Give the backbone structure.
Amino acid sequence: MGRTKIVAGLILLLMSAACARRDGGRTIVVGSKNFTEQVVLGEIVAQHLEHRLHRSVERTLNLGGTLLAHQALVTGQIDLYPEYTGTALTAILKDSSGAIGAGAVLSQVRAAYLRRFHVQWLDPLGIDNGFAMVVRGDDARQRHLQSLSDAARVAEGWKLGAGYEFEQRADGLAALKNTYHLSFPTAPVIMDLGLLYQALGQKQVDMIAANATDGLLSKLDVSVLADDHHAFPPYQVCIAVREDRLREVAGLQAALQDLSGKFTNQKMQQLNYLVDGEHQSVSKVASDFLKQSGM
């Protein structure tokens, strides 16, 4: 090996050591909650950081629900994860004002998270994944249902299927009932989110509390009822990241901002379906997305 190459190699080693000292040598830790979209987004973020920053990234995906992921972030168990503005506003900040614009919600969440948790919210990824109240297509056609106001006029009421968080959160079932006064003669059937569409198709329930980017929405004969009275706040997806890690890890913020605006609801539906419907690996789906996006 020539003298020039040896010197260049030493310089690179010294630079790497300097970077490690600045961030304490800690690996970047990417987290996610415990459903398909979150795991896919977490893997996309992790792979992108590995490629962009040329360093190892630890994945702590499938953490659990909102409160567990938030706790992991603020206690430093993870450095960042994708979160939803409406979820942060209502589940974490306990603000039930709800019916305000997407920009206002983001500004409010950004300011509060920075002040209270020393966490920054980066620019939106391009996804607005709100709650989607879904019924079978034949029910929507026979009953001329287009909105939740239409559904509220169904005298016999609805048998609802939902996940645990929707039942518990103020921006979920409580907001739906308070805004539309829908009739639910029996208690909601609480189940894993992955079982909702199966339960709807098998007529175990008549309505499900799904999400706007579910992959099956574009594949099944179902209808999303419009939230015409804005029971639910906006749910823009952003990366929430610890302020200290943005300072410590050179290039981290710029690398994360590469992902802002690179998604749409339709694209996220496709990614979710590749995992849930076609059973492709999360790693492959993430890698293909980054390649197709030129990243």
